[in-house]
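Changelog excerpt

This revision adds worked examples to the README so contributors can see how folded entries look when concatenated. The first example is reproduced verbatim below.
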Amino acid sequence: GYQELQEIETKLQFDVHLMVMHPAEYLPQWLLKTKADRFFLHAESEGDFRDLCSQIHVQGKKAGIVLNPETLVGSVLEYLPVVDYIQFMTVHPGAYSQPFLNDMVEKILDFHETHEDIPIVVDGGINVDTAWRAVGAGARSLVVGSYIMNSPDPALAIAELKGRFPQ
């Protein structure tokens, strides 16, 4: 929760991905009480998306819109002017350690080809092989969870990912 994040002393930047139907109920405490610098809201959530992005931007933070695998890109085009990122879920949200949905690569690529100026984030099922596919389709950032956390050597898993994509 946000209380734990308040206590973390780090120079690292981090994101908040609000996987909730009513982000307006949760955004204030996360936005005002953590050091997070990027906030991601689901396209499927309810509420005034433009207003939520405005609240984020007023605090000097970045806003992103998240698309579940079945969400049509066309349904969020009107919000592209008010977001800093678009995040494609390459798993169905909810359960940890799901396999990467390969058909999402085409969706990411199609979006990237028509909206090169919008940074793409990809979240779900990322490992050394799927990371390569996501980046090849246009992703600029990857959210990696189980590949690192389930690894017997998390530092090695991170090194393997970094080795694949020299900075």
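The second example, added in the same revision:
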Amino acid sequence: MELEPKTIRVLGALMEKARTTPESYPLTLNALVHACNQKTSRDPVTDYDEDEVLDALDALREMGFVMRVDLAGSRTAKFRENLSTQWDLSAEEYALLATLFLRGAQTPGQLRQRSDRMHPFADLQQVNDCLHQMQEREEEPHCLVRSLERAAGTKEIRWEHTFLPESAPAAGIVEEEEQKLPPPQNQQPSRIDQLEERLAAFENRLKAIEELLHELND
């Protein structure tokens, strides 16, 4: 199964926010556009507009990977992921797959650090064990991730999800990047991440207040 890059970004953003900002989830279209286009924790950084995100949502809803949520008394539709239910993902699989959707091919060390807010892994062995299980699943789809050829001069292989054509090997810079990663237990959300998430939550609350005022005026 191959997905379009836009649908992968939308799906990854929904999966991430479900775990990191549950108080503002499901997401409105505006909040989802903002989540897709974050300047941090995204590779590549995108600039999707509402129409592009809506197109991706329509495609994902046809596949059953996303659901529209219409809350009583609210005139604004919200959206949530349904992939974890469709594929019966464990918490570990969910966190790794969402991180791969948002940032492409990564080493186990990078995955451990970057997925920590969705699911904390005790050590690298747990990450590697989970990746191998995702590569040889008994359930469908049978292969969620694949390992890439080791780049020259590196000691770590990279992993990617299987829903885009296979990536080319990295040009020998992964080991250097791996050495720069801080220990996951010391990781804290960046100031920009915190502000972006607070802004998304504020926008959702403001939208709800506007709807309530409109209903009272009617």
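Reviewer comment on example two: The longest helix spans residues 191-217. Residues 172-179 have pLDDT under 50 and may be disordered.
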